[in-house]
């Protein structure tokens, strides 16, 4: 174990390991591209969660479809789309988006349904229209759970984006798959550690953003 960790340290700090098209810097940029783009596309599910949470309609279908998407085997979905579309990044992006959508939809819906009905009624009693109640009352109150859903989705996508290497594309997964093929445990562990670090850093960044948003909310409400 000591030798493995020692080898990992040498692998991570090696200057050659960080340069070139197969270097950590390049693979990290690819991994971030896959993860952030897939999460951004999956964010189209936000209006769905807001709508069903606001109206209460279609909740059963939307939540069950989201659960079905979560249960899909990611590698199996990649292979299926790969066979249908050929060699491209489409299978990877489709699988990652399908993985991210359930967390976004369910947490957005949960955040909307957690809003106190009396608050909604008070807003309507003040003459607010439905869209004003949604945007000015329900959405701000539901934002903590919405942000949690986005954080969960992003972490899941970062961890799963290693599958891009499964269909001969880039990302940090290349180290995992190449290491397994070459029986190089140091390379496998290095890829896994890098993916974990990226997931933690992105989660901390979103957590800091969330705290910053809510730090200014009380002052805003007080001014109102």
Describe this structure in words.
By secondary structure, this protein is mainly α. It contains 10 helices and no strands. The longest helix has 39 residues. The chain is elongated. The relative contact order is 0.13.
Compile the SSE list and pairings:
Layout (H helix, E strand, L loop, with lengths): L1 H12 L10 H19 L2 H11 L3 H13 L2 H12 L4 H24 L3 H9 L4 H31 L12 H10 L2 H39 L1
Helix pairs in contact: 1-10, 2-6, 2-8, 3-6, 4-6, 5-6, 6-8, 7-8, 8-10, 9-10
Key descriptive features of the protein:
224 residues, mainly alpha, 80% helix, elongated
Gist of the model:
By secondary structure, this protein is mainly alpha-helical. It has helices at residues 2-13, 24-42, 45-55, 59-71, 74-85, 90-113, 117-125, 130-160, 173-182, 185-223. The termini are far apart.
Number of β-strand runs: 0
Note the total helix count.
Answer: 10
Helix content: over 70%
Could you say which structural class the secondary elements and strand pairing correspond to?
Answer: mainly alpha
Q: Distance between termini?
A: 60 Å
| Element-level helix/strand string | HHHHHHHHHH
Strand content: under 5%
Oligomer: single chain
| Average predicted confidence as pLDDT | 82
Query: How does the overall form come out from the CA principal axes?
Result: elongated
Gyration radius from CA atoms, angstroms: 21 Å
Largest sheet: none
- Stretches where pLDDT is under 50 for at least 5 consecutive residues are 218-224
